[in-house]
Amino acid sequence: MKADPKGVLTGIHFIDGDHAACEGALAAGCRFIAGYPITPSTEVVERFAQRIPHIGGIFIQMEDEIASSIAIQGAMWAGKKVMTVTSGPGLSLMMEHIGLAAFTEVPCVFVDVQRGGPSTGLPTLPAQADMMQVKWGSHGDYEIIALSPNSPQESFDLMIKAFNLSETFRVPVFFMMDEVVGHMVERVAIPEASKIEITERRWSKKKPGEYKPYEAGPDMVPDLVKAGDGHRIHITGLTHDERGYPALNAAAQKKLVERLLNKIRLRKDELVDVRQDGVEGAEVVVVSFGITSRVAQAAVEEARRKGVKVGHLRLVICWPFPAALIAELSERVKAFVVPELNMGQMVLEVERAVLGRAAVVSIPHPGGTVHEPQVILDKILAASGKGAPAPQRAVR
Amino acid sequence: MNETMKAENPVLPYLRQDRLPHIWCPGCGIGSTVNCFARALTESKLDLDKVAIVSGIGCTGRVAGYMNLDSFHTTHGRAIPFATGLKLGNPSLKVVVYSGDGDLFAIGGNHFVHAARRNMDLTVICINNGTYGMTGGQVAPTTPLGATQTTMPYGNFEPSFNLPFLAEACGAVYVSRWTVFHVRQLIRSMREGLAKRGFSFIEILAPCPTLYSRRNKLGDGVDQVKYYKERSTIKDGADTREVGLTFQGDIVVGKFVDRERPTWLDAMTRHYTSVINDYQGVGHAED
Amino acid sequence: MSETPQAKGKGTVFVRIEVCKGCSYCIDFCPTKCLAFSKEFNAKGYHYPVLTKPEACVGCDMCGLYCPDFAIFGIRLKDLEKAQQK
User: Fold this and answer.
1) Which domain holds residue B35?
2) Is A278 exposed, middle or buried, given 0-12, 13-18 or 19+ CB atoms closer than 10 A?
3) How far apart are CA A290 and CA A275, in angstroms?
4) Average pLDDT value for residue range B25-42
5) d(Cα B97, Cα B64) in Å, to the nearest integer?
């Protein structure tokens, strides 16, 4: 279906990534946000609070991130498309409810405008150090989807994709921004509503009495109903059967957990979204995401001027990680260079995919600013054999 | 009378019968409150398809799962913020929070405080058994001074909450307290709470025979209900500052608060309608 | 399934013997004291309530309100007869 024109601010705008993310959510049909102020994400909810009364919907500033991350789930069961917005410390508080959303299959979007950590860290300065936390942070086994925009325009465009994926797969989707993308101001083109494709919720057509909340078809994703429609559903964070009733035994656990993992893992080919630049025929491939991709692009172009065959592979969807694609490339390239604003997180996934078939060079950074392009350039040159030899990774 | 006459327990249609028998211990008072809730639903004449029940975690947290309503068994302490989202997502729903004292006032205390302050339109029913039953009888913020619990093995030295006082101070528009003994009054109070627009709070003292009574040598569940019967005084409109509980001491029950304040949604709607020319409402089809 | 009731007064009770856990709420708080524990055990090993003074039962259903296990309820005979016509 097409976007509801009420939420689409068609036109050319000069806005920052946080504001663009808000517009993306509105265009995607988000009509309920529960949030709590935290730098550098707050502008997203500030804009939503200003815009939503003119569109129809609700913003509520909750008492903390724990409350925000479950209030949105209540609103989802009332039928709303929902989102919450935070940064590192708030994300840490939301962890239990991320598990609840994954386990009870609540379509929702969590925006994380990443800042330096751990703890209060660097509230106003960038990092990309929550990448593993969103994948593994809540207890137990579950799968999520995570996207990483590298510009205000993508903060708009990918937000619509984030909502659509959350509806298709009924999983929490993480929108992994960072302080720089959140606060950089650029041109953002918002198309007409009729040009924006929206994934409708998977509403069940079954009648009360026939419907089972966790009965899934071949795509492993159950259909939804909402509270108040006469289905008298029961939803629990306990391990549950197809009726949604608690089923506290190993067989039910196996059936449910395996389906929740497989609905993503067995369909991960549908979830590969990378931007490739000169990867074919490259001897060195830079793997990056988010703001770091923009710094890395400068280094890639400079290396090409120096005669290095270097490609750039940018992760738009970070989770699930495109391991098959990296594995296939590893048969043909000498080295992968992985700059990221953390001390080595997504590089671990690259290493797991490469399995020693090529060199993997990490360029860690503790955050607070972005990489110097020269640092990335030096690593590309070294990996290609044209510069000084690549040192062993000093920090793991 | 004909010897073959049959009748069904009137509470059963309100329950998910395929989930019975329930998990509660012999002499636990939670089931008694469920009877009262079912009767209150009948008397309220609400469309049950539009009533949702939300629980946290714990023995009382299991109530949602037994009620034949749209029902949500959420995380520990977070029933109120979940219910807040559910209510705001569809204001035509009547949303009831049914949970225990540890869930609502220890881990969930902050949410209670703020939902009452906002006057969120929720009916909050708290079964107060003074202990953490599900985890084996640890001290709760409602355990009376002097009572023994597994994590207060030499007797509780922490002061406990006076829940009606807390609820009133935070802004609840309806506050009452009853015990499992007071079933008729409880039905009336639940009916009033369901009908009240805004944040209504009903505290129900209930025995936990397995972990509270036994550890404190107070006999069985029925003995605790007899204590409620003997030591309770009904004082409607009592000053909530005066209704704190002590270990096996006197109990003041009754309807303490019944007042009017705009709900969060009413306040927002009124305010936005007056200051925003093109105010579009909360975006729900049934508005 | 409820047991066949006895009726000599204005009301009677129905007991689902097998779900009773013997808490004695119904017996202790019956306003007319017409219930007592059975001599027999149910399958779970509990004594359950029996209507020992059926002439005293008024069908007030206090037992039904108190019963934490939904095992007993009381009904006035005139309501019971009405229920059969439905």
Assistant:
1) 27-275
2) middle
3) 12
4) 98
5) 9
Contacts of residue B140, Cβ cutoff 8 Å, sequence gap at least 6: B101, B102, B105, B106, B130, B131, B132, B149, B160
Residue of chain B nearest C15, judged by CA positions:
B9
Q: Which two tokens stand for residue A387?
A: 């510069």
Mutate to test the interface with B, among A48, A65, A66, A242 (most CBs of B within 10 A): A66
Q: Distance from C70 to chain B by nearest Cα, in Å?
A: 7
Mean pLDDT of A377-382: 97
Encoded tokens for C33? 């004291």
What is the rounded average pLDDT of the residues A264-290?
97
pTM of the shown model: 0.97
pLDDT at B189: 98
pLDDT value of position A396: 44
For chain C, the distance separating the N- and C-terminal CA atoms, rounded to the nearest angstrom, is 18
Residue B220 contacts C where some CB pair is shorter than 8 Å: yes
What per-residue confidence (pLDDT) applies to C4?
Answer: 53
Q: What is the CA radius of gyration of chain B?
A: 19
| pLDDT at residue B121 in the model | 98
What does the pLDDT read at residue B286?
A: 52
pLDDT at A391: 55
CB-neighbour burial class of residue A339 (10 A; exposed 0-12, middle 13-18, buried 19+): buried
HSE-CB for B154 with a 13 A CA cutoff: 1
> A359 - beta bridge partners?
A335
Packing angle, helices B264-275 and B79-89, rounded to 10: 40
The residues near A66 (Cβ < 8 Å, ≥ 6 apart) are A93, A94, A96, A97, B78, B81
Question: Is-contact A350 A383, C-beta < 8 A?
Answer: no
SS3 track for chain B: CCCCCCCCCCCHHHECHHHCCCCCCCCCCHHHHHHHHHHHHHHHCCCHHHEEEEECCCCHHHHHHHECCEEEECCCCCHHHHHHHHHHHCCCCEEEEEEEHHHHHHHCHHHHHHHHHHCCCCEEEEEECCEECCCCCEECCCCCCCCCECCECCCCCCCCCCHHHHHHHHCCCEEEEEECCCHHHHHHHHHHHHHCCCCEEEEEECCCHHHHHCCCCCCCHHHHHHHHHHHEEECCCCCHHHCCCCCCCCEEEEEEEECCCCCHHHHHHHHHHHHCCCCCCCCCCCC
Burial class (CB in 10 A: 0-12, 13-18, 19+), A147: buried
Q: In Å, how far is A228's CA from the nearest CA of chain B?
A: 5
Asked, for residue B70, whether it belongs to a domain, the answer is: yes
Round to whole Å and give the CA distance between B208 and B19.
Answer: 22
The CATH class for the domain spanning C11-85 reads alpha beta
Domains of chain A, CATH where assigned:
5-195 (3.40.50.970), 274-384 (3.40.50.920)
Test mutation, C66, C75, C78, C82, chain B, max B CBs within 10 A: C66
Q: In chain B, whose CA is at the least distance from the CA of C18?
A: B21
In C, minimum Cα distance to B21 occurs at C19
Report domain extents, chain C.
Answer: 11-85
Interface check B114 vs A, CB under 8 A: yes
Determine the residue of chain A that is closest to B118 in CA distance. Answer: A62
Band (pLDDT 50/70/90 cuts) for residue A72 is: very high
Residues 6 or more apart whose CB falls under 8 angstroms from that of A156 comprise A20, A21, A23, A24, A27, A188, A190
How many domains is chain B built from? Answer: 1
CB A24 within 8 A of CB A159: yes
Chain A neighbors of B87, CB-CB under 8 A: 74, 78
> Are A67 and B90 a contacting pair at CB < 8 A?
no
Average pLDDT over residues A318-341: 98
CATH of the domain at B227: 3.40.50.970
